[in-house]
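RETRY 2/3 - previous attempt timed out on the joint model. Re-submitting the same 854-residue input unchanged.
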Amino acid sequence: MKPYSKLSKEELHNLKEQLEKQYEEVKKKGLNLDMSRGKPSKAQLDLSNGLMDVLTGDCNLVSSEGVDCRNYGVLDGIAEARKLLADMSEVPERNILIYGNSSLNVMFDTVARAMSCGIMGHTPWAKLKKVKFLCPVPGYDRHFGITELFGIEMINVPLYETGPDMDMVEKLVSQDASVKGIWCVPKYSNPTGVSYSDETVRRFARLKPAAEDFRIFWDNAYSIHHLYDDRRDVILEILNECVKAGNTDMVFKFISTSKVSFPGSGIAALAASRANIEDAKEYMKYQTIGHDKLNQLRHVRFFKDMQGMYEHMRKHAKILRPKFEMVENVLERELGGLGIGTWTKPLGGYFMSFDSLDGCAKKIVAKAKDAGLIMTAAGATYPYGKDPHDSNIRIAPSFPTVEELELATEIFVLSVKLVSIEKLLSA
Amino acid sequence: MKPYSKLSKEELHNLKEQLEKQYEEVKKKGLNLDMSRGKPSKAQLDLSNGLMDVLTGDCNLVSSEGVDCRNYGVLDGIAEARKLLADMSEVPERNILIYGNSSLNVMFDTVARAMSCGIMGHTPWAKLKKVKFLCPVPGYDRHFGITELFGIEMINVPLYETGPDMDMVEKLVSQDASVKGIWCVPKYSNPTGVSYSDETVRRFARLKPAAEDFRIFWDNAYSIHHLYDDRRDVILEILNECVKAGNTDMVFKFISTSKVSFPGSGIAALAASRANIEDAKEYMKYQTIGHDKLNQLRHVRFFKDMQGMYEHMRKHAKILRPKFEMVENVLERELGGLGIGTWTKPLGGYFMSFDSLDGCAKKIVAKAKDAGLIMTAAGATYPYGKDPHDSNIRIAPSFPTVEELELATEIFVLSVKLVSIEKLLSA
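RETRY 2/3 succeeded.
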């Protein structure tokens, strides 16, 4: 295909007319499609229905350490749940603290705790004049929401194929003591699908922060969420790298089973140095007598161990793979070579990321919406909802069926083409 | 029995010698008894085992409003769970917001939110020079823990048979704008078992706070936790009374199923005016995508409605009643008329409260511990762990068996007698 930029004004006008007809045809269908959120599909949820059956019929509800999981107690989680989530996080059990039903809540809680009580004896962030977080972009809107709520200033850091711009990260973290954290999704990043290179992880572990209470917020949401058996991203384990670099306390890792078992009914954990875990427990003991131990037991009984979880994730992959491939195929077929957009082809996770010509993302999302397709709001992948280039759009292929995705992606590319032509014509 | 105060020094010495022998005999048994925490017993937990069976076998996991409870979403709780907890709280459904697994966490979260973000547009409490809470005493240690963690100054208010000293409450609340809250357990209060009179509830509802963001923290933990069918405390519904008094937004009610189903695996809620609910949701949307909807559904399927819950509570009562009566009987038999202690005889809840001679509580708890009986730490029922009279001891009869309770209460009265004699002899 000839790039749109090489087309004459007349050719562009003709193309536009033709595409508008197609667009009006689609619009008439009154469709209601959604590629906006990373929700598992019904078929994926069905994979975990067995969770509902493992604690039934007056079965033994006592943990391996003899705790009646029905009663109060056990602040840090039952031993077998700590073991399972430790294995999932690739850290020793002593570095795990089990929380409630989602890692989003663990992250919120960790920031809230730092704000009101401080980290490991340091001044509460709420008492400082200025607190800043680095935000690799594009990134996850709910991360940015937490830091915005607490009035933390967010600084964009470009996210490359290898991870965040580490020159910039090193400079800001070492020179500015008001930089207290950085949001990272190190594997199959939301939304680009990028995984951090070994070099990036090592540079993270070797940071020399100006602030002693600087922490890397390492949201390993997609640690075992591969799409393929034979092609997988592998990343270095950050806590171990931090120990090796003498920065034992510098990282908070977050993990959950939300996209493994049932979203909202999973179990979540913080993985960190023992000093950080003790510090978190010191606050947690005022918050709760304990999290839902029956749900912890339910997860252990269902998955048994990491082998069980890996096998389960292969079933998820079998459902998700054709969906990602459908979107990629339509994008390639319809937009390949046109020079009006680029997109990522991740090997795992829940998202793909699309970059349009500058200044087109909001219009593309609006145009898609008019034809019955909901996309994540343009800008959502940036702090304060402000994409400086207005070009990034997150694509979430998990929830619709393959058939719906084909239709949805066709609406999407039609919208991309039309908005791009308008831009080129007005240039 | 002759009051100890009427005994001569010689009589006291003889009695002491005799009691010390008994105490040494008990000590030799090497017992390990616990009357410290309000934990349901195994027999009580068994009552709810059916909860584990109601969502099994690929049954319908869709809510009444068509929500797949396995997936993300529904911030405020599924409709049928809101209905059940609204009925339990005696408020309309629109005044209910479902949270996670315990009301302690809802209370923590509500104070944390007021500290960092403020209530309904008012200045965040963390930005004020001074924030104070009124604390009816004796009260619940975990309430005091939350306010202490956030640096809120706690002011003791005497708790009478009818509820807190309302003259003092009215005066402090109306004159001091730094008074932002009061902790209340209005029914079968922890630890005294007192329930607030209608007059007390009405005076609460008619408060004229100096601070617009003053809130009554109404922890209705034992709303349906009666011990008897024929003798029950009934209290006025505070939210409705507040509406009538033109103070619609002045109360936060907290409720949970922790001592109805399984502690730690229950569901909890905030009940408040619609404006307060919207304010809480505005914060909650950053914390979570939603709480555990499957556990909400599980509770509704198991209890069905309030009638089902009332019947369930009668089964709890049947197990708890003989325990409370055993403690009361031993106390009456052993201490009646001695003038060295008074105790409450509640009609519901989880606790009794014992008042020794001044300056004896810590020593009694220590003496009981030496003989193998754990009691709640003396002082725990007061802010900062400081009982000004060192006289209040909380008794939690729920967890041990009736046989263990008899033994435990005998150790307790022996400890009370010995410490009281020591005090009288040294006077």
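The two ends of chain A are 22 Å apart (CA to CA). Closing ticket.
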